[in-house]
Predict the 3D structure of the following.
Amino acid sequence: MVQPTVHPADRLLGAIEELGTPICVGIDPVLERLPSVVRAEHWEPVVAIERFCAGVLQAVAGVAPCVKFQSACFERYGSAGVASLERLVSRADALGLIVILDAKRGDIGVSAEHYAKAAFGHRPGPDWLTVNSYLGEDGLRPFLVDGRGAFALVRTSNPGGDALQTLALADGRAVSDAVADMVAGVGREWIGKSGYSSLGAVVGATKAADAARLRLRMPQQVFLVPGYGAQGAGPADVLACFNADGRGAIVTASRSVIFAFEMDDAAWINAVRTAAARFREEIAGAMRGAGVGAR
Amino acid sequence: MVQPTVHPADRLLGAIEELGTPICVGIDPVLERLPSVVRAEHWEPVVAIERFCAGVLQAVAGVAPCVKFQSACFERYGSAGVASLERLVSRADALGLIVILDAKRGDIGVSAEHYAKAAFGHRPGPDWLTVNSYLGEDGLRPFLVDGRGAFALVRTSNPGGDALQTLALADGRAVSDAVADMVAGVGREWIGKSGYSSLGAVVGATKAADAARLRLRMPQQVFLVPGYGAQGAGPADVLACFNADGRGAIVTASRSVIFAFEMDDAAWINAVRTAAARFREEIAGAMRGAGVGAR
């Protein structure tokens, strides 16, 4: 069982070490893509989605060290969806998976403390939460509590994110560089034995050029790297997110793993497990090929 | 009953016109500050909070045109808190109040669409949602649907927000100016008969100097102005957020209204109503004094 006093970065890096490859399976369920057998058995959308996600957790446990739940996919079903998410987080925890809740919360003061309570107020609960950086340090600190961690949005992988985050500041930095420097500064106060902080950073995998620069600005941040697979980034694109010792990043794939089956495949759980293993091999192979993490 | 085809800015400005003053009561309940009588009757925290909020809605209906629920205060109680919030939003709608859900959501693509469904997928539901701007236009557009509106974070009232949002860009603008220009540009596509957009802006009342500049950059945005009362801004500070005709902003006070009673006051609902009326008179008086909205 989890000891709340373990530093979240140490725990995450330990889990990665144990399974050998820094991958995370993103759980972004949508009703339209569930296997026919799940939809046939569960008419109620939110029940079908919970059943599906339980199968995905079973498939990826032991293959990936970590899962990331997209909160929006559950919140769209209101309080019933949130209750499903709570049960699934417990189940993931019981399966020994590190859990990231991708909810991109962002507020200040007592409201941020409420959000921290919402995410981290109970065990079992998520180990990490994604948070938005636009409100500054006050929007980050409340989440750095009690053995839990936060991934702050630094560089996102969408065109609209580019427009704002690449703007040049008068001092020569990009806006995302300034955010990175803030994250590195706040995170420095929360370093684990592994040398990494409980304040990590979200850095989109489709921005390899930026990633290399941000890696230098945030040497102690674990990078959560979305955008692999269905979002278009390949293995080579994500390598810039790692430190030379092969640590410091975890690569997320969602749709390319969790929907890797034919709709009417009754053995869809096996297909998801196979896709997760393939994802693991792709990342491991790319890292070996580039000499990243060769120790 | 609400017609979903009414433009949300037209509806909001109509409700303000009807009650005479552009105020919004922020509903940020915390257990520790509930009236003794409510706590005594309802042992379960989330039940006590729901009962309290129902009393606040009863107190402010007919005094203020609009209420803003702080989602974090409910989310901290998990799915049970979210269910409470759903019931309270319905109740506010039935009382004829315009409802803003202050959840500061921010995501892109299908995840943003899920969040839009979560907020706006049902009637009754909130009329407006607060959203984070850091992900750019892709993080705003999915919320501009079907008679509902969004307030995008442009300038927040906290020290950490200052540090990032006032940074100077190479082109001479501040970061928050660039966000304002983006919001004005996207919002231009969604203008109602009133001349205002369904994409509004959050502009903290403690930043009067910024507010005047941002008002010029975003002539068609309704400003949601937090920070009045307990957060330290006075009536004069908020005037810069209005256009010369007295429209274009709505001022929010939370704690100074909803907790305006002695803990053991059994008539606390009356005290809240009195505080809401006082808030209305302060804002109306300041606007008259400055000649804002004299037509």
